Amino acid sequence: MADKKPDENAKTERRPSAVKTLAWTIESKQKSLALVATRYLPADRLVKLAQAAITRTPKLAECTALSVVDSLMTCARLGLEPNEAGGVWLIPYKNKKSGTLTCQTIVDYRGLLDVARRSGEIAAIHAAVRYQNDDWEYAIDTTSPVLVRLRHTPAEGERGEAIGAYAVARLRHGECQATYLSADQIGAFRAKSARAEYEDSPWNTDEASMWIKTACRRLVNLLPRSPELQALREQLTREDQIEAERPVLALPEQAKQVDLSDEAGGSQPEPGDETQAGELSADEIPFG
To answer: Which of 116, 170, 231, 270 is most deeply packed, by most CB within 10 A?
Structure first.
């Protein structure tokens, strides 16, 4: 009897998906993330949160691995959780010239305030939107030891339209720093934002939060120097650079969560397989 030919239709071993490959790459960088992580966000928790983020947003797996890991280094330095309210949002952007997707970090305004509080330079910090019917007083008084006099009492009932936003901080030595922006000034910041063009942009879905963040960004420049605040300033500078380049957002539609277990799609990639789907291998990602 003649030997049977191999079944050409036999099921071949599936290569791991881009999401799984990136998840493994992130896990392989846990020690590097631990070198810069703060006590507010241990590296092992950051890795788990990052892996959860890419399963919820598979479009992130299409970004270069270098940009994703670099974004997680930012999360580690700031001690802010990725893709969680009050943390750092990992956003996929497409380069208009090359078409390459890269992951960029955008800090939630609540995360911005948390970093400021942790710096040790701030006794208290607050930010809010001012509405037309609110009771309001704001003045710079050079005869006062705290320099700034700000009083804001929200109106009861109908508050009217938003007319400004402010952020104020009392420093540990008692001095106050504050910044106030009118609706027109905030509108000028919005006009520079590439994200504002999209319906699901926070400028359209959560406008009050964006007003507050705009005021907080201005306040950060007035606060004392510290390692935490310096890292925050560097992050905000990067955000400004992103907006100046006006890249194309590559936000995905809602997708089913991807199962990262071995049973759900093949085995862990063999050495040399990590570069599929345009990703860098874990060993090729530089830190510095």
So the answer is: 116
What's the chain's Rg over C-alpha atoms? 23
Stretch 123-136: mean pLDDT: 96
Q: Taking CA 90 as the corner, what is the angle to CA 85 and CA 91, rounded to the nearest 5 degrees? A: 115
The one-letter amino acid code at 35 reads: L
Structure token pair of residue 260: 């990262």
The model carries a pTM of 0.76
Alpha carbon distance 213, 217 (integer Å)? 6
Sheet holding 122-131, edge to edge: 122-131, 162-171, 176-182
Q: What would the 3-class secondary structure string for 130-181 be?
A: EECCCEEEEEECCCCCCCEEEEEECCCCCCCCEEEEEEEEEECCCCEEEEEE
Rounded Cα distance between 104 and 122, Å, is 28
* First CA to last CA distance, the chain: 65
Task: Spell out the alpha helix ranges (H) of the chain.
Answer: 18-28, 30-36, 43-56, 65-78, 109-118, 183-191, 202-205, 207-220, 227-245
Q: Which helix (H) or strand (E) holds 142?
A: none
What CA–CA distance (Å, rounded) separates 144 from 192?
36
Between CA 9 and CA 31 the distance in angstroms is 43
Distance of CA 80 to the CA centre of its chain: 8
Query: Residue 214: which of 130, 119, 104 has the closest Cα?
Result: 130
The SS3 assignment for 65 reads helix
Residue 144 CA to residue 170 CA, distance in Å, equals: 14
